[in-house]
From TrEMBL:
GO terms for molecular function: oxidoreductase activity. This is NADPH:quinone reductase-like Zn-dependent oxidoreductase. InterPro entries: ADH-like_N, ER, GroES-like_sf, NAD(P)-bd_dom_sf, YIM1/Zinc_Alcohol_DH_Fams. It holds the Pfam family ADH_zinc_N_2. It comes from the Bacteria. The lineage of its organism: Bacteria, Pseudomonadati, Pseudomonadota, Betaproteobacteria, Burkholderiales. Residues 15-330 form the Enoyl reductase (ER) domain.
Length: 334
């Protein structure tokens, strides 16, 4: 089958479209004919080697986490899906590879495609929506009336997280550039900070939850936004020892994570703030709940551009440039 692969880690790795063996089907797997996939910053970070301590992939590696497509075969232990079903999923760690014609995904990580979405729209959803869900619902347990600050509101995670936070009844603030202010307001943001002209730490105060997705400068700014006793949750790091222990990483790696997060944890304690790192996981059950929100019109996908499978390298470069509004999609079946 055709697939987009990289041969080694590195920011200069352009990658290439090549022929690779079709994925092997395990007993609890669903084999999906990929109609569309989407790009996430996680794809560029894995290519660059940023997560090789946590996710040490073997090379050559087929990139891609998000998929929407048709089931073509199921393992003998699969009961929820059958050939011909339209599905979407975030591929499992160590079994990624959606920039390809086929992928095998565990049954428990697959959800039925929302009936009101195209394949391209459905492919834009899984990773970012699961991230937003696992931060806002699973970790923060956001309640109606709480104040939530979501960084980078025009990005893939931010554009979905704003909609989910509003659905949970929260008051939502976000950041974006001047040209996207009205656009993120239309997603539901109550307060929009123009990061090119305004200082977040001076504009926002006493927020219950902050979803941090940017760099160390923004992480320190966020500490001054959170109300004492409340939560700062990062999806971009630094990771904590608790995270490493939950993933059952080796003790030396747990110690490394402890050292990496020592500074921010110390600052958070000083301000009475709880700091946590979330690295999202695949979940078909959560995707089913998210699909219901999409079918009801509560959450809608946001797509910036669509690229062909032979243009994945260009799509990765576009996402890494930071100019995309919402998601960038790879169309595998025209």
């Amino acid at each position: 089958m055709k697939a987009f692969t990289i041969d080694r880690y590195g920011k200069t790795q352009v990658g290439r479209l090549t022929d690779v063996p079709a994925p092997a089907l395990q007993d609890d797997d669903v084999l999906i004919r990929v109609h569309a996939a989407s790009i996430n910053l996680l794809d560029t970070k894995i290519r660059n080697g940023d997560f090789k301590l946590i996710l040490p992939y073997r090379m050559p590696l087929v990139l891609g986490h998000d998929v929407a497509g048709m089931v073509v075969q199921v393992g003998p232990r699969v009961s929820a899906f059958k050939p011909g079903d339209a599905v979407f999923a975030r591929a499992d760690d160590f079994r990624i590879g959606t920039f390809a014609e086929f992928i095998a995904v565990k049954e428990g990580s697959v959800g039925s495609k929302p009936a009101n979405l195209s394949m391209e729209e459905a492919a834009s959803i899984p990773l970012v929506a699961l991230t937003a869900w696992q931060v806002l619902v699973e970790t923060a347990k956001v309640q109606p009336g709480q104040k939530v600050f979501i960084q980078a509101g025009s990005g893939g995670v931010g554009s979905i997280a704003i909609q989910l936070a509003k659905a949970l009844g929260a008051f939502v603030a976000t950041t974006t550039s001047t040209r996207n202010i009205e656009w993120v307001k239309a997603l539901g943001a109550d307060v929009v900070i123009d990061y090119t002209r305004q200082d977040v730490a001076k504009e926002l105060r006493d927020y219950d939850v902050v979803l941090h997705s940017l760099g160390s400068k923004e992480l320190e700014q966020s500490l001054r936004v959170v109300k004492p006793g409340e939560q700062l949750i990062s999806i971009s790091g630094p990771p904590t020892q608790e995270f490493a222990a939950a993933r059952r990483l080796a003790w030396p790696l747990q110690w490394v994570m402890r050292l990496l997060s020592r500074g921010i944890r110390k600052q958070a304690r000083r301000r009475g703030v709880r700091y946590a790192f979330v690295f999202m996981h695949a979940s078909g059950e959560q995707l089913s709940t998210i699909a219901s929100l999409i079918e009801s019109g509560t959450i809608r996908p946001v797509i910036d551009r669509v690229f062909a499978l032979d243009a994945v390298a260009d799509a990765l470069a576009y996402v890494e440039s930071g100019r995309a509004k919402g998601k960038v999609v790879i169309q595998v079946v025209p």
